[in-house]
Amino acid sequence: MNKIRIALSTVLLISASVSAAVTEQEWGNWYGNTGGMEFALNTQNRAGQALTVSCSNKQMLVTLSSQKENWSARSDEALDDLYLRINNKTYELSNDTMFPNEPVPAQLVFEALAHAKASDTIVFTSRQTGDSKPFSARGLNEALKGITWQDCMNQS
């Protein structure tokens, strides 16, 4: 009887631990987490480059990396002429504004990403990295459905 209690307690403890773990979700070409303790969406292109859009510390961060070439570039690294291009529209990635009532450039990018169509393409570009190969927006709209800029800013 005591062994049965121990076994049952172990099973319940393991089940609770597994339920508490955050698992990555997948939406089309995008995967990651948009709730709980982490906000990070990832995708890869055919060239093996990875693009990550994450929110933490009250800012949005965009990272381009290449595992093949072992490098990465982040939007908070003071890169020159840093932009994200959705189709042919170019967006700045800054989390700061010049004037108090002006929208934060990163907010405009976030909102454009949330409204991206499956057929849209995304390119990370800076003077240092040049243009990335295109990334597909397929699934991005679904991943960001119901998530607002304020949700992004509330990530700690």
Structure notes:
24% of the residues lie in helices and 32% in strands. It has helices spanning 2-20, 105-114, 140-143, 149-153; strands spanning 25-27, 30-33, 40-44, 49-56, 59-66, 71-74, 83-86, 89-92, 121-126, 130-131, 135-136. It is α+β, with helices and mostly antiparallel strands. The chain contains 4 helices and 11 strands, in the order H-E-E-E-E-E-E-E-E-H-E-E-E-H-H. It is globular and about 40 Å long.
Gross geometry: globular
Number of strands: 11
Q: Mind describing the biggest β-sheet?
A: 6 strands, antiparallel
Distance between the termini: 46 Å
Structural class: alpha+beta
Strand content: 25-35%
The strand line-up of the biggest sheet is: 1-2-3-4-5-6
The helix content, as a percent range, equals 10-25%
- Overall pLDDT: 86
**Rg, nearest Å:** 19 Å
Oligomer kind = single chain
Please tally the helical runs, counting DSSP H or I stretches of 4 or more residues: 4
Following the backbone from N to C, one meets helices and strands in this order, namely HEEEEEEEEHEEEHH
Unreliable segments (pLDDT under 50, ≥5 consecutive)?
2-20
Topology:
Elements: H1 2-20, E1 25-27, E2 30-33, E3 40-44, E4 49-56, E5 59-66, E6 71-74, E7 83-86, E8 89-92, H2 105-114, E9 121-126, E10 130-131, E11 135-136, H3 140-143, H4 149-153
Antiparallel strand pairs: 1-2, 2-3, 3-4, 4-5, 5-6, 7-8, 7-9, 9-10, 9-11
